[in-house]
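Q: What structure does this chain adopt?
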Amino acid sequence: MKKNNYHHENLREHIIEEALKQIKAKDVSKLSIREISKKLGVSHNAPYKHFKSKDDLLCALIKKGYAEVTQNFADIVEKHKDNYVDTMTELGKMYIKFNTEKYEYTKIIAAFDYQNSKYKDEVEEVFLKAYSHHSATLLKGQQAGVFIDEDPRYIAFITRAFVHGIVALMMNAEEQIDFSFSMFWMAAKNKKPTKKEIETLSIIQ
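A:
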């Protein structure tokens, strides 16, 4: 097999791109570093110079996807400033767009059990950075009297359930349907989410 001479930094990006292609086409569980190596025409050991394991690669993919989400969220907040309803609406629309147009990232989040991996802290930091724009807008809106005076985590459950419900309808994705229902019924029963439930569902704190 012909080997490709990727530059050290370029190979890492090519591995990430190929991994996303694989995940888009099939289940995350089917992601194969060996297959990525074969597709790129490099040795089977080459990817391990950049990623220690499959979980390490999945963590890198989450960081890549949510770096985009974080930047888009920041742009929306800056654009709409003190119009909190418009800001929350646009944040929701952008997140729906991301989850449907780049569904491979959604599949990773649903399949990667990061809570029980050594990457838990890294992944949660990525999520919290992205959703900080969401939580800050909720809090400012409450202070301005725009939103109800309720635990912002509770409101987050409702809004996230709504958004993921739309994604589920658009993508006909069972895991998204389960995810949105779990949050919806929690809100409908007026059951405040515990810290553990928030962490498990990747909801802002």
